[in-house]
Lipoprotein
Amino acid sequence: MKTKQSLCLILACSTLVACEGGGSSSSSGPSAQAPDVEERELVFEFSEAPLEPTVFNIAAGTGDPEDHFSPNETISITWKMEVYYDDQSVPEFNESFPYTASVYLSEDGAFQQEDDLELFSISCMWPSDSDYACGQFASFDCDYAPGNQNVISCSSIPVGRTNGINDLPVDTSAFLNVIPKSADVLYVACLDEEPNKCTTFTGSLQLN
């Protein structure tokens, strides 16, 4: 009788160990892999108001509307760029993005490079770089018809940067077929490393 009880006890213990062993073996297998996280998409665009691209007359105190310009007055052009990811996260502090910005005068507000008058095109670095005259923020002064010449001459602020512009003249004779003339100012910016990622903005001015 004692022998039977001992055998039953040994069998019961063996069964219990086997069950526990099976359980631990199952739990130690490879866990299910998490689904792939979708890659973030970079967003590159001009800032919205109040820091959207603007064109204004620094001589507006004379009574002229801020977007009207007479000969020998200065057209001030500014903008701010936004760069972030589509999950609303921002680039790391050591990330930078070179981009090229161009400013045109247009008769109809539709970007047609062969028909529009390019005032300037410039290399910029977001958020900023000491060699570039523009970055997250950009500011330019363009002298309209200085000395009653048929030119608009633009310079970057600050001046003297390697990638800046200084007194870059553009002949306006063909574009200014009537005076005064209302025109659209087209801002176009594209990332250098992703040339198809561009952003545009349209403003307005009048040249008297």
